[in-house]
Amino acid sequence: MATVDPRMRGREAYERLAWRDxxxxxxxxxxxxxxxxxxxxxxxxxxxxxxxxDGATGAWERAHHAFLERGDVASAVRCAFxxxxxxxxxxxHARGGGWLARAQHILEDAALDCAEQGYLRIPMVLRALDGGxxxxxxxxxxxxxxxxxxxxxxxxxxxxxxxxxQALLAQGRTAQGVAMLDEAMVAVTMGExxxxxxxxxxxxxxxxxxxxxxLRRVQEWTAALSRWCATQxxxxxxxxxxxxxxxxxxxxxxxxxxxxxxxxxxxEHLSDPPGNPVMGMALYQRAELYRLRGDFPRAENCxxxxxxxxxxxxxxxxxxxxxxxxxxxxxxAIRRTLGETEGAEDRPGVLAGYVEIELAAGxxxxxxxxxxxxxxxxxxxxxxxxxxVVAYAHGSALLAAGEPEAACVALRRAWVAWHDIDAPYETxxxxxxxxxxxxxxxxxxxxxxxxxxxxxxxERLGAVPALDQVRQLMSRAGRASYPTPGGLTPxxxxxxxxxxxxxxxxxxxDRLVISDKxxxxxxxxxxxxxxxxxxxxxxxxxxxxxLV
Length: 548
What we know:
Layout: H1 6-15, H2 19-32, H3 37-49, H4 53-70, H5 73-89, H6 93-110, H7 116-119, H8 122-130, H9 134-151, H10 154-170, H11 174-189, H12 195-211, H13 215-230, H14 239-252, H15 256-270, H16 278-293, H17 296-308, H18 316-323, H19 327-340, H20 347-360, H21 364-379, H22 384-400, H23 404-421, H24 424-440, H25 444-461, H26 464-479, H27 490-500, H28 505-512, H29 516-530, H30 535-544
Helix pairs in contact: 1-2, 1-3, 2-3, 3-4, 4-5, 5-6, 8-9, 8-10, 9-10, 10-11, 10-12, 11-12, 12-13, 13-14, 14-15, 14-16, 15-16, 16-17, 18-19, 18-20, 19-20, 20-21, 20-22, 21-22, 22-23, 22-24, 23-24, 24-25, 25-26, 27-29, 27-30, 28-29
């Protein structure tokens, strides 16, 4: 029986995206005799796609020399580029930079006009983007894309358009940026781009869309990445990140059990080989799910592991401290984090956590300032998600400031926004706040209905800390189901009690952490409801009805 040539089997496996088989068959063929440079390049790419980075760089190095011996300088330069680029991505900047410099010198000596000129400009462009000069990066990327178009190089075209989109987003030109990202993705989803470049584009586009809070695109491209990963055998570099994004989307949709399973798989996938930077993102996502479900010890362990992998644990860890009743620790952590966080991509999440913690600490004015900043950031994005975050924070701050009627208006906007996004947990949190606001204005029927709706969602999700808050409010409602004297709201009763002690409006404002103007409005409403015209008469009423 004739023996099948492992080289042919390796090529066939490569064509059907069976990367493990391709690598093993081509490696077997390599042991039998020297492979052609094109086969060495295939073996390098297959090794890269199964996560064998050393095998990939080693095979590309041999392909580089083989192409030079054959006189194919352009292919040799491209191999050197992928060696350098791969090493830099994995933190070996000195070796990677050396290979990129070697590739540049070879190309200059050969004086070739080829697509590889564009590839070798990519590291310089990335440095400009990281260095805060997106316009210079964008101009260079336009030139790179023109080189790609001239040589009809689909990989370089996709990378060029990806970079242009990232640069436009960095300039705040969101609509143009996402349009360019979409164009890059069309070529990828059509199968025009090689797997190595396609995976880079997929992951970078999803991260870019996350950065501008475009959840619709994040969901759409994550689903596409998931389908793409499923077609390829033993794919390693991109599958873990895909699983993390899938978990985030499932969490938002209220599919917490599935979200936990996805992130567990992500952690397993990313653990071998060790050192993958995406592992920190996966651990943070796992910690968030544990925190929301009330498993605080596991949440803390995951936050700490995320820190060990170079990923920030905030604002999640500060919110965990708040849930544990460690308010001082939560406030110190979130204030420090806010001071260190500058980018518009990371700051909204920190600001939202800051508002929640400062309100718990009674720092209402500081929370209002944070809400104003959140609102300004949201104005720069066309993001329903950010609008929902801002509306909830605004409503919560108004409620804490003793303005329950205005809080209901803001919270209703938040409810509509979260409901449209199909985010049941966030929608239920809004209903919990609306229950508090409705109770403040004496609308106990609505408060009860909002609490019951929130309770059902929290029970289904297993959101134990939030469910405890609902039960506490329901218990208080049972103890205080009778109306307050004179039809006063609970906040107005608080103000009346302080008036009866002889406190001035300024002193009441300081005590309740609200503004002088708000106190004056409460006093005026209180006088009207009680039919009195002086603080002395209001004080007498308070004593007559045992409110002091």
